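A student in our group prepared the protein record below, which I am reviewing. Thanks in advance; the entry in question is below.
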Amino acid sequence: MVEWITTDGLTDYDEALAFMDARVAGIIDGTADECIWLLEHPPLYTSGTSAKPDDLVDPDRFPVYEARRGGEYTYHGPGQRVVYIMLNVGKRGRDVRQFVKDLETWVIATLDTFNVKGEIRVGRVGVWVERPDKPLSPDGSLAEDKIAALGIRLRKWVSFHGLSINVEPDLSHFDGIVPCGIRDHGVTSLVDLGLPVTMGDLDVALQAAFDTTMSSMD
């Protein structure tokens, strides 16, 4: 049983951490169901366990939080759907790499709902889209922008933190960091790609895609 929670408005980051800590403890001791939490944060930066100080370009722009998850610097803010994933990986195969791969597959299936082709790149965490409308990269390849970020942590085989998908955030807010440590590629959103997708549209697609991808792990 996975409980889905959708929170309107902007959720304080410390409050989100406290909720996840409590929920994960409940899942571990068997007193709480697994949970997918959909929300938005006010503008902020988070640093993962691999974050490099030089990648925080503008430390005074927004609050910076230590996220205690894998990965590097990430931006969260209005117009971005944050998906916190509290699932029992111990009962879902105990394969962390496969779990992360399944999360990426979930995002790609969600984006496919809107005819957006999300792709994975070796050595680059997250989900990417090719941008034939932009100038070619220096090596002659198509430009690529990141549309979704991913970073999880496990506690006794229960996951928390999760992923974020850009619906219509202010993309200039990403300028204060080197997103996920990647300097050679940009960031995009569904609306930036010309798609008038709402947060509600994305939420429906996320749940439908979950039922056909992640639920197969049960």
